[in-house]
Amino acid sequence: MTDESLFREVDEEVRQDAYKKLWDRFGNLFIALAVVVVGVVGGIKGWQYYQQTQSETAAFVFSEALKKAADGKNDDALAALKAVKHSGYSQLARLREAAILADTGEAEKAVAAYDAIAADASVDPALADLARIRAGYLLVDTATPDALLGRLGKFDKDGEIWRHQAREIFGLAAWRTGDYVMADRYMNAIFADPETPAGMRQRAQVMVQLIAPNLPKS
Length: 218
Fold this sequence. Notes:
Serine Threonine Protein Phosphatase 5, Tetratricopeptide repeat; 2 domains; mainly alpha
């Protein structure tokens, strides 16, 4: 499975939750601003119009950048994404920039871009965590299991939204390094979780079958 297809699955599984949390974050700001200027009808309308036009412009630029990326015009797409200034869309643009770097074989630069997003306190926590997970998938073939645990260990808890992806990363890294007992533990945890996405459950089932012949005989 390619990094691109993994990214696509990750995006599909969490897009709604990430966007909701992003709106929750910036929506509160818009409400607070409206309270400050309450009673000044003209001011409110002017602010709302400004915000609407800024958001619509950012949405258009972001959409055009995605089209360029889909057409393989990655340099043009990156340039367009850097032009996105609206607070919410700029965070999504940074994620897409990193994804384009990954898609074009610039794995180290992509990881650095994701790490920068994750370390930025101004980034919505849901998107920062998405950046951490994407970096983890890029590193699964090269980083040590301990290094990946250091990056993503906080997600290895029941109830964490990213637990499935983190455990898949840990399991794949353990498989790669020959720690079949650990790999089996993580893949079975994914398979047994009733909230695991269907596609990931199927992958975990396949991995459990591949791991089984390598486990110590009881």
